[in-house]
Amino acid sequence: MTYMTPFSRMLELKSGTFTDPDHIQTRRLSDLKGLFSDPKAEAKLLEDNPVLYEVYLAFDAPPVHGHLGYSTTVIYPGKVGDEYFMTKGHYHAKGECGELYTCLHGEGYLLMQTREGEVKAIHMTPGVAAYVPPYWAHRTMNTGKDNFVFYACYPAEAGYDYGTIAEKGFASIVLEKNGKAEVVANPKYR
Ligand code: M6P
Ligand code: ZN
């Protein structure tokens, strides 16, 4: 038996980011084209194409049974029209894999849904440790004025199904209404 050598990474607790990640994934608005509910606001903001969020992948885990992936995600503050900056959102390709999300900084929402359209929203503030059960899609949005940062841990074999969300959208969206975040039904959900 050949053992893998244990290791650690450094998490900068103030910002929530890893100082020495294996990988940083940068997502701009163009990477989420068509996912926001207001196409006019999206087209306008695409001229600047801002960075919406970055994923600091602590470890490039082999995508096989037994290994764990871990990362922090930093979603920057901002909106496309009235809709807050958010992640693409995904089901796991291996639907039976769950995930843990712990908020480190700022505030936002963790939206989850089943393929039948049941939705659950969890308000994330520092210390909230949320459980994403198997088979629930998950997407996060920054509803605050500062960066929203959370730590995630998931089976490395989970994989990503982005296609279903790109095609059908999420059943709920989070909009700013009268200066407050509101979780509302998505009129474009199919
Ligand atoms: C978390 C984890 C990652 C995911 C990232 C961004 O860090 O769930 O696996 O990649 O959030 O979410 P998405 O892939 O949906 O853009
Ligand atoms: Zn996931």
Chart the SSEs and their pairings.
Layout: E1 11-12, E2 17-18, E3 23-28, H1 39-46, E4 51-57, E5 68-75, E6 79-80, E7 83-84, E8 99-105, E9 108-113, E10 119-124, E11 129-132, E12 137-142, E13 148-155, H2 163-168, E14 172-177, E15 180-185
Antiparallel strand pairs: 1-2, 3-4, 4-5, 5-13, 6-7, 8-11, 8-13, 9-10, 9-12, 14-15
The chain binds 6-O-phosphono-alpha-D-mannopyranose and zinc ion.
Give an overview in words.
By secondary structure, this protein is mainly beta. It is 7% helix and 41% strand. It is built from two helices and 15 strands. The strands form five sheets. It has a six-stranded antiparallel beta sheet with strand order 3-4-5-13-8-11, with no helix packed on it. A three-stranded antiparallel beta sheet has the order 10-9-12, with no helix packed on it. A hairpin with a 5-residue loop joins strand 9 (108-113) and strand 10. The longest helix has 8 residues, at 39-46. The mean pLDDT is 97. Residues 55, 71, 73, 87-90, 99, 152, 154 line the site of 6-O-phosphono-alpha-D-mannopyranose.
